[in-house]
Design brief:
Structural class: alpha/beta
Oligomer: single chain
Strand content: 25-35%
Strand order of the largest sheet: 2-1-3-4-12-11-10
Radius of gyration: 19 Å
Helix content: 25-40%
Largest sheet: 7 strands, mixed
Order of helices and strands: HEHEHEHHEHEEEHEEEEEH
Distance between the termini: 29 Å
């Protein structure tokens, strides 16, 4: 009957409204994690918080690895004992993960120009990353960047991208890696890759959390929701 259908719709609506917020952990070992927490918490249906231990990452729906200093971040993760748990979370459980700048280096399967003695990496992203591809801190820059319309929307309004001692992806090792943005060179050619998605992994060379543009974080949350719908 019409009344039964209305009741069914109201019940379904209440269930959706009652759904708990997505729990997004932002790795807070070093770097710009506060900005990610703030931006994520501005999105409806999201609760973001800092994580530093194995216990704190248990049960999260998504993980963010911020920018910072990748060698320091890796060493702290190794010494604190959380590194094996991060590898399991990302490579085995396949928790949706968004990594920016140094976080990209942490996820790369191979990194060029590592510091002497190497550095602990998480891995899982089938790319070769060049650390500090754009040079020192003094050569940091901002630019308007075009990207995939799945991120920017159909109007494809460019995003503001901040590159701070930024890495770049110089080689893609698997066709499953989907290039979302490349930075054109001085001649306007394609240049180097600065954002990709590989399944549950999203990475950028730049810092969207340091701008007012929330579209990269919104895209990540869509990935988290898609993963949760797939697992229910």
């Amino acid at each position: 009957t019409v009344l039964q259908e209305r009741h069914r719709v109201r019940s379904s609506t209440r269930k959706r409204m009652a759904a708990p917020p997505l729990r997004i952990g932002v790795l807070a070992l070093q770097g710009a994690f506060i900005e990610h927490v703030s931006m994520l918490n501005s999105l409806e249906g999201v609760t973001a918080f800092t994580v530093r231990t194995e216990a704190e990452i248990a049960g999260i729906d998504g993980l963010v690895i911020p920018g910072g200093e990748s060698t320091t971040m890796g060493l702290v993760a190794e010494r604190s004992g959380i590194l094996p748990s991060l590898r399991k979370l990302i490579k085995e459980i396949k928790t949706p993960t968004f990594a920016t700048c140094a976080g990209l280096i942490m996820l790369g399967d191979k990194a060029l120009h590592e510091k002497e003695g190497g550095q602990p990496l998480i891995g899982g992203l089938s790319v070769v990353v060049d650390r500090n591809h754009f040079g020192s801190q003094l050569r940091s820059f901002e630019t308007e960047l075009d990207a995939d319309p799945r991120v920017l929307g159909e109007e494809r309004r460019p995003c503001r991208a901040m590159f701070i001692r930024a890495p770049a992806i110089v080689e893609v090792l698997d066709p499953a890696v989907d290039v979302l943005a490349s930075l054109p060179d001085e001649d306007g050619k394609k240049g180097v890759v600065v954002a990709v998605q590989q399944g549950h992994l999203l990475v950028t060379s730049f810092h969207p959390e340091l701008t007012a543009d929330i579209r990269w974080h919104e895209f990540f949350i869509k990935m988290v929701k898609k993963n949760m719908n797939k697992s229910t």
